[in-house]
Automatic annotation (TrEMBL):
InterPro entries: NTF2-like_dom_sf, SnoaL-like. Residues 4-120 form the SnoaL-like domain. It comes from Halococcus thailandensis JCM 13552. This is SnoaL-like domain-containing protein. It comes from the Archaea.
């Protein structure tokens, strides 16, 4: 499996409301999201669990995924339209975002070691 396939599977899991923590390495450094900073594997797992618990109806549209793999490491960038419904605030969100990050090959496949999702300009 390629790093690109792993990223696409992450997008699919996000759309489907499936657990996401397994996509991250056990020593992952950080995941920045829109308005959040999840540090370390435990922080990332807890934040992603909460996100899955409190959101639904995800749209994830990749518009320019670029991935480079080299000797067990990979990095990526993408322009992604993300939309979701927040079940706690009863609000719908829709953003054009920029994604980037790094992955490392593990015995069982590619895992994110860091991810950054941001919105151009003010949110």
């Amino acid at each position: 499996m390629s790093a690109e396939t792993t990223i696409e599977e992450y997008y699919d899991a996000l759309r489907a409301g499936e657990p996401l923590a397994a996509f991250f390495a056990t020593d992952a450094l950080v995941k920045f999201g829109i308005g959040e900073r999840l540090k370390g594997p435990d922080g990332i797992a807890a934040g992603l669990h909460e996100q899955t618990r409190t959101t639904e109806n995800w749209t994830v549209e990749s518009h320019n995924l670029r991935v480079t793999e080299e000797e067990g490491s990979a990095w990526f960038a993408d322009d992604v339209r993300m939309a979701w419904y927040d079940t706690e605030s009863d609000e719908h969100h829709d953003h054009r975002t920029r994604w980037s990050g790094g992955l490392r090959w593990a015995d069982d496949g590619w895992r994110f070691v860091g991810m950054h999702v941001s919105v151009p300009g003010d949110t």
